[in-house]
Amino acid sequence: MIFVTGATGILGRVIVLELLKRGKNVRASKRPGSNLNEVKHSYSFYTENPDDFFNRIEWVNVDFDDLDSLTTALQGVDEVYHCAAKVSFHPKDEKEMYRTNIKGTENLLFACEGSNVKKFLHVSSVAVLDNFNEKGELDEDSEFNPKLEHSAYAISKHLSEMEAWRASAEGLNVVIINPGMIVGSGNWNQSSGELFSTFEDNSFTFSGGSAYVDVRDVANTAIGLMENNLFGERFIIVAENNRYADLAKQVRTRLGLKDARILSQSVLNIGRIANTLFGWLIPKLKMVTKSNIEAISSFNTISNHKVKEKLNYQFIPVKESIDFHLNNYINDKKLKK
């Protein structure tokens, strides 16, 4: 039995589906209020038999603050894919991120100690990577630098990684993956699922960029790493490094919208001053922090060489990925009308 946490999220649901396609038995975590119909609907984007696969999932409600809940969920489990996490860059979500991402991971790994779990995959993020290699790229050796300013999200993912490395040092077979911005379908209003609505709703964008990767690639490489027993290592999972403006243009052109205007550094700095003065009055200004400005203004090259070499893997081009998932986004919007 394989246990997947965060199975209603944009990545967890696809890992579950890919495992089911391989004939695996899967137990999937959810919250009591999770929308399983939305998950089942999204499977229609990835397979011609969505109901057949969905009906094979063993869903369990899991409270990551409750060790008994976790112990029960792990009964009969020998592999864990830990995808559950809170993703946010808003200061108001700091406490929830620390509790979910750090304490939740710590509790899950503690519960694994008394179980039959042999393999554990931890989903982290490229947000924890800091130091550049001699090529000027971020790679698997780009360790987190605590002297630099980071978002609360990056700090929470770094500290949750530390929990996973601790378990690895104590004998658990652990692999860590660091995906870039995940492009997927469904869950349109949460975390990376908001990618298309963000580009649609905002007539402005930023000068920087990020590393992107299709959700199907993240799921397939994660499973490949577990199947090949590549433990005690981290693997960056990205397809390409793209500028926000280029992706905004692709999305907005397809939606029949004007090109987004790139906000200059000076405008962003004015926003940061406004946050200091009026952030208490206008909640959206709280997002204009030093670490967030740095993130949206920078464009770092992140290497995917290691995972491509280890698994002989070819990633879906980002343009093709955007087209596929944007089409699903458009069709879902039509259904709601």
Outline of this structure?
With 337 residues, the protein is an alpha/beta fold. Helices cover 44% and strands 16% of the residues. α1 links the parallel β1 (2-5) and β2 (26-30).
Tell me what you see in this structure:
Residues 277-282 have low confidence and may be disordered. The strands form 4 sheets. This protein has a 7-stranded parallel β-sheet with strand order 3-2-1-4-5-7-11, with helices on both faces. It has a 3-stranded mixed β-sheet with strand order 8-10-12. The chain contains 13 helices and 14 strands. The protein has a single domain (2-187, 211-242, 301-318), classed as NAD(P)-binding Rossmann-like Domain (Rossmann fold, 3-Layer(aba) Sandwich). α4 (67-73) packs across α5, α5 packs parallel to α6 (152-169) and α9 packs across α13 (318-336). The protein has helices at 12-21, 36-43, 50-54, 67-73, 94-113, 152-169, 195-201, 215-227, 244-254, 265-278, 290-297, 305-311, 318-336, and strands at 2-5, 26-30, 58-61, 79-82, 119-123, 137-138, 173-179, 181-183, 204-205, 209-214, 233-237, 240-243, 261-262, 301-302. It has 337 residues and is of the alpha/beta class. Residues 2-227 form the NAD-dependent epimerase/dehydratase domain. InterPro entries: Epimerase_deHydtase (IPR001509), NAD(P)-bd_dom_sf (IPR036291), NAD(P)-dependent_oxidoreduct (IPR051783). GO terms for molecular function: aldehyde dehydrogenase (NAD+) activity. It comes from Chryseobacterium rhizoplanae. This is Nucleoside-diphosphate-sugar epimerase.
